[in-house]
Write a structure and sequence with these properties.
Blueprint (H helix, E strand, L loop, with lengths): L15 H5 L1 H11 L2 E7 L2 E6 L2 H8 L12 H4 L20 H16 L3 H19 L4 E3 L1 H17 L6 H12 L5 H21 L5 H6 L7 H32 L1 H9 L4 H11 L5 E6 L4 E3 L2 E3 L4 E5 H5 L28 H18 L25 E3 L2 H11 L3
Parallel strand pairs: 2-7
Antiparallel strand pairs: 1-2, 3-8, 4-7, 5-6
Helix pairs in contact: 6-7, 6-15, 6-16, 7-8, 7-11, 8-9, 8-11, 9-11, 11-12, 11-13, 11-15
The structure holds protoporphyrin IX containing FE.
Length: 404
């Protein structure tokens, strides 16, 4: 540890100051980098990779494990409940052939999703949500729009009863945003998914649960619950964050806001820019060195988490292709064997939701240009996305979409 900053002076990736100005913590980490200590909960220290080149090296090294059994705090039962996100089971915590088997099953089931049907579903849910606030002239597009539209979409994709969307959303919230009742959130999520698996065994339908039940990999019920939970935990919060953060950028950043009024904005450009400029999956990809190793000349001790700050690597000044309109070198979707299996699915959902809001809410603008993030190190999500818009348009939209 002598090669790093001392742990009593490291930045905190949680708490009010981090939520208000995460960039300060990343600048401090970058100055101490390319790998530096940070605190992810009271007294819990991890190594954070901030340089794009170091992240690429780590992601390509098969000697690191994703299994949290390699974390000394797990063996000592000293992982605080709010960090359940780091230890819940699922594909993201597996290695080698176990990971390959689960990954193939997930990829093949995801490939069977009817994308035009998904887009139609997102449009329908978006309109229903917009109709709830369109004649009010103001809304929190995070809480009233981005989060519920994604929860409804995933409930449908997975095949859970529609009435469980709010429960799923709050369970994921406790886990992702490091709330004290995160372990209860995990129990609630696993309970809903277990019931869904039992229902789909008797009455299969066109959904991911039924597809996993009949997949040739022959996953058992517990494995299916864990993989569905991975899809929901890793899929919903970042997609909602992406929608909220892009809508906020469209309303507040001069380059976009002027084009938004004239209708010429490229939503895709704004979405892509957010993937590296305010990366939804901020600090993730938890690795463990099974024995002491080196990374770009720095010693990596065994049995401590080493995480990639996708938020920091996106803004690394030495990243190739940075800020290019076609920028594809960022790690917003990660890379290597654990890269996100669903970028096109996430794009379909987010783009449809953003387009609907922009089309429906005329004269859309934000009351404030700055916005704090929700708490916790893992997902960078606006706490609120306040929006003002013309009330009359809301009513026209309501009339227009009656019976849709
Ligand atoms: C804006 C939206 C999204 C972003 C930015 C994003 C980003 C990421 C990143 C950075 C990882 C690597 C995590 C790690 O190594 O620990 C990841 C993994 C994963 N993502 Fe996504 N994701 C998004 C949406 C989705 C969606 C919609 C789904 C599901 C439908 C999904 C499912 C997964 C799964 C299952 C993994 C684990 C893959 C593995 O370990 O092999 N993600 N994602």
């Amino acid at each position: 540890m002598s090669t790093y900053q001392t742990v009593d002076s490291v930045p905190r990736l949680f708490g009010d100051s981090f939520s208000a100005r995460p960039q300060d913590a990343y600048e401090q980490l970058r100055a101490a980098g390319p790998v530096a200590w940070a605190e992810v909960a009271e007294g819990v220290h991890v190594l954070i990779v901030t340089s794009w080149a170091a992240a690429r090296e780590l992601l390509a090294d098969p000697e690191y494990s994703r299994n949290p059994e390699h974390w000394d705090r797990v063996a000592q039962q000293r992982v605080p409940p709010e960090l359940a996100y780091m230890v819940i089971p699922g594909i993201q915590r597996t290695d080698g052939p176990v990971h390959e088997r689960l990954r193939r099953a997930l990829e093949e089931c995801l490939a069977g999703i009817d994308v035009p049907g998904l887009r139609t579903r997102v449009h329908k849910d978006s309109r229903a949500l917009i109709n709830r606030f369109s004649d009010r002239g103001h809304a929190d597009l995070m809480r009233e729009y981005a989060e519920p539209v994604v929860a409804l979409t995933f409930t449908d994709l997975v095949g859970c009863p529609t009435g469980t969307a709010d429960q799923l959303r709050s369970a994921v919230h406790t886990l992702t945003f490091t709330e004290p009742d995160a372990t209860q959130g995990w129990d609630d999520l696993a309970g809903i998914l277990w019931d869904t698996v039992q229902t789909k065994k008797k009455a299969p339908a066109a959904d991911l649960t039924s597809a996993l039940l009949t997949h040739p990999a022959r996953l058992n019920d517990q494995e299916i619950v864990c993989q569905l939970a991975s899809l929901i935990v890793l899929g919903t919060a970042p997609t909602a964050a992406w929608i909220g953060s892009t809508l906020h950028a469209l309303m507040t950043e001069p380059a976009y806001a002027s084009q938004l009024v004239s209708g010429a904005v490229t939503i895709r450009t704004a979405m892509n820019e957010r993937l590296w400029g305010r990366c939804p999956v901020a600090n993730s990809s938890v690795h463990y060195a099974p024995w002491p190793k080196t990374l770009r000349g720095l010693q990596i001790p065994a049995r401590v988490p080493i995480m990639i700050s996708h938020a920091a690597t996106g803004l690394d000044p030495s990243r190739p292709g940075r800020a290019d309109a076609r920028d594809r070198s960022h790690f917003g979707w990660s890379a290597g064997v654990h890269r996100c299996p669903a970028p096109s699915l996430a794009t379909t959902i987010a783009e449809a939701a953003i387009e609907n809001a922009v089309d429906a809410l005329w004269d859309l603008h934000a009351p404030t240009s700055t916005v704090a993030s929700k708490h916790g190190p893992f997902v960078q999500c606006p706490a609120h996305v306040g929006a003002l818009f013309a009330q009359v348009q809301g009513r026209e939209w309501l009339e227009h979409t009656k019976g849709a």
